Q: What sequence folds into this?
């Protein structure tokens, strides 16, 4: 059955209603936070276009829009990392999504090899923070050179 | 002391290094996920410009860029909701930030009155999801009409 998103016609309905009315930005994308349902850790921050969102809703498998490769990217095609969606949350103005996922296969979600993309944090210094990073994951879960052999690195300067 | 972000000159350094080299998009913004340090719940998804990020690092108080009001927005000015930053994480390609915050004052972060902006989720249906939303917070923490009296609603159609 075709999935149709209803039109955004009132702020009240968007904020307090029960109709899913996702807002895509001027590039047709909506930001997505992906969380490991087992330990509540944020795994990654990505984007979906309308098609990727519909495919995710239908199949319960994470689909994203790859901004570097400019195509739909089903999370598992190249990496063997499966994200099975258990819950989809939307925020107040419906312009951001949270996916809760159960990982299977390689239990990691970061192309650099770590479990989470957020494997570094700012070092504390005095009353604030410095601009030096410290690692909060000590060991990679997989070797990206083996898994992504020959594929372009999505990280851009 | 002035905070300076070093230039992004190599993918290896961005991904595996210890220099904080945040990437701002073509609008000068970086997305920010804000998490309650007490229960790991995602409270909100916002944006910072370079100045808001530097002010957050310096003061350990959340500063964002308001896309609707087009100005820096210190989280507490209007709402009495304080976000005290305990940790700042950055992702692999350094184009997204997580703030871990301790809430004080009104223990909520959503302008609609709920604790988290993500107070709704897609209803489960068959093997996937429907496009009907169900609420996962049953009661508002505060009355937005009292707190934001006379201010423009940031939610846009």
A:
């Amino acid at each position: 059955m075709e999935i149709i998103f209803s039109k955004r016609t009132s702020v009240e309905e968007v904020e307090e209603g029960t109709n899913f009315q996702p807002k895509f930005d001027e590039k047709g994308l909506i930001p997505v936070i992906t969380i490991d349902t087992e330990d509540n850790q944020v795994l990654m921050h990505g984007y979906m276009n309308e098609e990727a969102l519909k495919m995710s809703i239908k199949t319960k498998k994470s689909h994203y829009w790859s901004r570097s490769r400019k195509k739909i990217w089903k999370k598992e095609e190249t990496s063997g990392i499966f994200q099975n969606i258990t819950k989809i949350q939307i925020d107040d103005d419906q312009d951001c999504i949270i996916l809760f996922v159960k990982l299977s296969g390689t239990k990691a979600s970061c192309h650099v090899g770590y479990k989470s993309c957020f494997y570094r944090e700012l070092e504390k210094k005095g009353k604030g923070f410095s601009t030096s990073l410290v690692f909060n994951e000590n060991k990679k879960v997989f070797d990206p050179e083996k898994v992504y052999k020959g594929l372009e690195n999505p990280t851009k300067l």
